[in-house]
Specification:
Blueprint: E1 95-96, E2 99-100, H1 153-162, E3 181-183, E4 190-192, H2 193-213, E5 223-224, E6 231-232, E7 295-296, E8 303-304, E9 349-353, E10 360-364, E11 372-375, E12 380-383, H3 435-438, E13 482-486, E14 493-497, H4 498-503, H5 531-542, E15 592-593, E16 597-598, E17 605-606, E18 610-611, E19 651-655, E20 662-667, E21 741-745, E22 752-756, H6 775-789, H7 806-814, H8 816-831, E23 837-839, H9 845-858, E24 861-865, E25 872-876, H10 889-905, E26 918-922, H11 930-943, E27 947-952, E28 958-963, H12 969-978, H13 980-990, E29 995-1001, E30 1007-1010, H14 1020-1024, H15 1052-1059, H16 1068-1074
Antiparallel strand pairs: 1-2, 3-4, 5-6, 7-8, 9-10, 11-12, 13-14, 15-18, 16-17, 19-20, 21-22, 23-25, 24-25, 26-28, 26-29, 27-28, 29-30
Helix pairs in contact: 7-8, 8-9, 11-13
Length: about 1100
């Protein structure tokens, strides 16, 4: 809270207007900043006359000289600010800070009307007197008094209440001098009486209502002071002065607010015998300054008198001398220094002897028992303790078997009389028959046996029955009569021996399921004594019999009172409920926080005391934490440490977790940056590489277990790879038949069949099996011989022919190094007559597709074998194979480039008459998609029964190619020409493209012919115009096969099937079974 500096010599502010009577008054519209109770947070205005200011209650007033004229403030108009008296008290006296200011009032610098002044008008006899103009009236500028900074609580409280600076912590309104107040005797907080009454009643009623709802006894009427959070038992009822001598005190001018003016007379803290001598005041009484009474030390050897504040009335004082008091034993004196309380027991060690004289020990004087004199026939001693050993002193009979069996006791000089002597034993053990009636001759000594009569003992047992045994010596046996005995719960009775019920009541196996008084646990005790009462109580509840409730209000049985500790977490979150297990929610935490509770930045603080569990306040300032990355912080509100700051949005370069790449434009907060590439580190097996994507070091596939990849090594019994889990460094077992797919062919290799290999170390499997040649094989052999007889050389017909498919040439252009490497392997395999099969290493799917296409161009058969990642391609020589193409892929690419260049320079005179098979859309709409075009134009194509596919050319134009077989080209040409008009209309109306043109395209989407080409650019029209005859350049037919490759009845359908690339299947066994 900001403080205001006092001016050098300010005039006292005019006294504030009185507040409304009763309570805390009504709040004003303009209020200053909230201030705490009685605390000094600002500077107090300096008043030149110290006698007029409020003095501490513990300081007596000091006489001061008369004030100078400049120290007297001008008389106020009686109107002041809130929270104080009016400018004048009773009798019109001037009031300053709640006290009367004696003395007159000096004149001001402004002259009164009619007085002498330099600016007065000239006096002319006979004329009216002109009044002098008066200056503007002086205005008393009110100034708000600052908080008191007095050294003691009483003076601060008086001054703040007088100046309207003291606030009630409940309603936060000012506590005024005429308000009815209540003061806490612990923290000395001053509150409005009406506020604290309402506070105490609400808190007490809340606890009582909660107790009634939970079915518990109402708690004692206690409430907590809002200032110190400590429990109070007395409810505030009356408004009294500070010393509580006067009820409803009146405000008296010149006295502190709410003071009766009498002496305080309250007892001071401690055992001070002097009451407080100050005037009735707020806060605690000051320390006593009188001399205390003379007090002796603990031992009473010295006397002293000190000031009351220095005297410890409760504990006393010590002189430091040896105590010397007699100890309780009466033999020794206390050797401790002067001490408080009794001297205690005597710890001097004394040699002692037991009563029976059999043991001697060194015991402390205080541990000895009563001293008694013992005497034997030989010696005499003083016994002081019982050793507990059996006496074993012989009786006067002299029989060695008869001796004293008592524990250690005082010894007599004369031996004890034997209890078995004839003069002692006169009756049988049961006491019914005399011994002389049972024996023919009397007993001579104590060793003679004692006879037993034949009658029943008939002694009364503890159960109330009589002993049924015959006369016997010693104690009676337990009662053996059979009686009905009830168990502890009283629900089961059984016939049992009487003594069993006396020793311990039997227990039935019934488990008590009654709920305890907490409502959370059940009894669970076996044969519970209170189960029957619990059943009756529950039955009375169901029948609403309120009269059956005990008069003391104790509803539950003693056996069903839960004695466990509640232990549930309180709302504060820091403590657990320490009360016994109970119903309903736990009470509020009784702890309080007496430290400042601040936000994370420390700029928003809650002042103590605060209830336990109070969360830090919400801070409206910006967060001041610095990022570890060094980037500037994003503007956001202050928060606790449990909440993270917003993530750093800056983009930086970060290495991936595997360390192979450094990725750009990565968020700064991102810690797991991954490049997405496989690890490819060699595993511990030595045969495989880690296939996991980018990961941290030490997290490869074999980090937690051994390598789980397939072995992949080539078997020794066949050409396939081992598919068992990695078993390095041990060799492959090869004991089970190989389940890989293989092919068997006929001798001419025209036929082939897919079967399982089934090779193992014990059997060669199907690798040596062959098929028999059929009639087709013989026909192909005849055709080959015919070609040799006619001396037909295919090379003479392929000068301008390209024997490769367009896809193969496109792949060669994009991957020239890879394509040349495998083309060389193909040519080496083709020239070697002994080789019939060639296997390539595993590769990617698009590379395998190139191998399949190249094998078809060479006239070879190809198959993909084994699943991923070991899938590879095998090629085979069949009778279809004649020789390798004479032109390489590089030569064909050059020929294709030259042909396209010549075709672009000169156009043929006569059209190639290529039939229409597509529409060409020029300048299509920006952002148009294939799905939109297909949806819009499908109805027009559907009328002709034609399906189509859509492709985008590199120039940006769109080709709508019709899908049909070659045998229907002429019909397709006519159908496309028939639907051109509706298609063009639909394209123009929807704005799909600028124009629609019929065209002819090849399989590589090369436009061979367009409808909008100039018809007069060739043919007879060109000749009539005198133009030079241009030789028509044959259109390149990439991928077309020479007619001399295979002679005979090769059909068009077979030629098209050869162009298709075989798709690699995942499950070759299913495919083989299907074939």
């Amino acid at each position: 809270m900001a403080t205001t500096a006092a001016s050098p010599a300010p005039a006292p502010a005019p006294a504030p207007a009185p507040a409304l009577a009763g309570g805390s008054g009504r709040p004003r519209q303009r209020r200053g900043p909230r201030r705490g109770r009685g605390g000094a947070t600002g500077d107090t205005a300096q008043v030149p006359n110290a006698a007029l200011t409020l003095r501490p209650a513990s300081v007596a007033p000091v006489a001061t000289p008369a004030p100078t004229p400049t120290s007297i403030a001008p008389r106020g108009n009686g109107n002041g600010r809130r929270g104080g008296y009016r400018g004048r008290g009773r009798g019109g006296q001037l009031m300053v800070n709640g006290q009367r200011a004696f003395g007159g009032q000096l004149t001001t610098a402004t002259p009164r009307e009619g007085s002498l002044a330099g600016d007065a008008h000239e006096f002319i006899p006979g004329q009216a007197h002109a009044p002098r103009s008066r200056g503007p009236p002086l205005r008393n500028m009110p100034r708000r008094m600052s908080k008191s900074q007095a050294p003691d609580i009483a003076t601060r409280t008086h001054e703040d209440i007088t100046n309207g600076q003291y606030e009630c912590v409940i309603c936060t309104n000012e506590v005024l001098p005429n308000s009815k107040v209540w003061s806490c005797k612990t923290c000395w907080s001053v509150l409005h009486l009406s506020c604290v009454k309402r506070w105490s009643k609400n808190e007490v009623s809340t606890h009582q209502q909660r107790a009634v709802e939970n079915g518990e006894l109402p708690p004692p009427r206690q409430w907590r002071c809002p200032g110190c959070n400590l429990p109070k038992s007395d409810l505030p009822n009356n408004y009294s002065c500070w010393c509580e001598k006067e009820i409803e005190p009146r405000s008296i001018a010149g006295l502190p607010p709410h003071s009766c003016g009498q002496s305080c007379s309250k007892r001071r803290v401690g055992s001070c015998p002097h009451p407080c001598e100050l005037m009735c005041h707020a806060g605690p009484c000051p320390p006593c300054g009188h001399m205390g009474p003379s007090m002796s030390c603990f031992c009473g050897k010295e006397m002293t008198s000190r000031r009351c504040v220095e005297t410890n009335y409760e504990k006393g004082w010590t002189c430091g001398q040896i105590c010397g008091e007699d100890l309780p034993c009466g033999e020794h004196a206390c050797e401790r220094e002067c001490h408080e309380g009794l001297c205690g027991s005597c710890d001097v060690e004394v040699e002692s002897r037991c009563y029976c004289g059999m043991e001697k020990l060194g015991l402390k004087c205080s541990e000895r028992e009563d001293e008694m004199e013992s005497q034997s026939t030989e010696e005499k001693w003083i016994g002081s303790f019982n050793c507990g050993v059996e006496c074993r002193r012989s009786f006067d009979c002299g029989n060695p078997n008869h001796f004293c069996e008592k524990a250690c006791h005082v010894q007599d000089p004369k031996q004890a009389h034997c209890p078995l002597s004839p003069d002692v034993v006169t009756h049988c053990p049961c006491g019914k028959t005399r011994v002389k009636d049972l024996l023919p001759e009397p007993r001579l000594d104590c060793s003679a046996p004692i006879p037993h009569c034949q009658e029943k003992c008939q002694k009364l047992l503890g159960c109330g029955h009589l002993c049924e045994q015959k006369c016997h010596a010693g104690g009676c046996r337990p009662c053996l009569q059979t009686v009905l005995i009830s168990c502890r719960c009283g629900r089961t009775t059984s016939n049992s021996l009487c003594h069993q019920g006396m020793e311990k009541p039997p227990q039935c196996p019934r488990i008590c399921r009654s709920n305890l008084n907490c409502g959370r646990h059940e009894c669970g005790e076996r044969c519970c004594p209170g189960e029957k009462k619990a059943s009756e109580r529950q039955a009375s509840k169901r029948k609403h019999r309120a009269l059956n409730v005990p008069a003391n209000g104790q509803e539950f049985e003693p056996e069903h009172i839960c004695l466990r500790v509640c232990g549930r977490a309180l709302k504060c979150g820091n403590h657990n409920c320490a009360s016994l297990c109970h119903k309903g929610p736990c009470a509020s935490c009784l702890e309080a926080v007496f430290e400042d509770i601040s936000c994370a930045c420390g700029r928003t603080v809650l002042q103590p005391p605060q209830p336990c569990g109070t969360t830090p306040p919400e801070c409206r300032f910006d967060c001041t934490r610095r990022r570890n990355c060094g980037h500037p912080q994003i503007k956001h509100q202050c928060h606790e440490d449990t909440e993270d700051c917003p993530k750093c949005p800056f983009l930086v370069e970060k290495p991936c977790v595997c360390g192979k790449k450094t990725l750009k434009n990565q968020p700064c907060w991102f810690t797991e940056v991954r490049c997405g590439l496989p690890c490819n580190k060699k595993l511990r097996c030595g045969n495989h590489f880690c296939q996991k994507m980018c990961h941290r070091n030490g997290q490869c596939e074999d980090a937690a277990s051994s390598c789980t990849q397939a072995c992949g090594r080539k078997k020794t019994v066949c050409e396939h790879t081992c598919l068992d889990p990695c078993h390095a460094p041990y060799p492959c077992k090869e004991t089970t038949p190989c389940q890989a797919k293989t092919f068997i062919t006929c001798e001419c290799q025209n036929q082939k069949q897919a079967i399982r290999c089934l090779a193992s170390k014990s059997s060669p499997g199907n690798s040596e099996k062959t098929l028999d040649c059929n009639e087709e094989c013989l026909r192909l052999q005849r055709n080959a011989k015919l070609a040799a007889a006619l001396k037909i050389d295919p090379a003479t017909h392929t000068d301008d022919h390209i024997p490769y498919d367009s896809k193969t040439l496109s792949f060669f252009s994009a991957n020239q190094k890879f394509a040349q490497q495998y083309e060389r392997e193909f040519r080496v395999f083709a020239t070697d007559e002994k080789e019939k099969r060639l296997r390539f290493k595993p590769m990617q799917p698009y590379q395998r597709a190139f191998i399949h296409g190249l094998a078809e161009d060479f006239g070879l058969d190809s198959e993909s074998q084994d699943p991923e990642p070991h899938r590879h391609v095998c090629i085979f020589k069949t009778p279809k194979f004649v020789s390798a193409p004479t032109k390489t892929l590089g030569q064909c690419v050059k020929i294709l480039a030259v042909g396209q260049q010549e075709a672009s320079i000169s156009k043929p005179l006569v059209s190639s008459a290529e039939p229409w098979n597509a529409f060409l859309l020029s300048n299509p709409k920006f952002g148009i998609t294939i799905d939109e075009l297909y949806t819009d134009l499908k109805p027009e194509f559907a009328t002709a029964g034609i399906d189509f596919e859509i492709s985008f050319l590199p120039s940006g134009d769109v080709v709508l190619k019709a899908l049909s077989t070659t045998s229907w080209l002429i019909k397709l040409d006519k159908e496309l020409a028939a639907i051109k008009a509706p298609v063009a209309k639909k394209v123009t109306s929807l704005g799909l493209a600028s124009s629609t043109t019929l065209c002819a395209v090849d399989s590589s989407l090369n436009v061979l012919r367009r409808e909008d080409e100039n018809a007069a650019s060739g043919g007879w029209s060109q000749v009539a115009k005198g133009g030079a005859l241009l030789r028509s350049i044959a259109q390149p037919t990439v991928g077309a096969k020479s007619s001399f490759t295979v002679l005979g009845s090769k059909r068009v359908k077979d030629m098209e099937n050869k162009k298709k690339v075989e798709d690699a299947v995942d499950d070759w066994e299913v495919e083989a079974d299907a074939t």
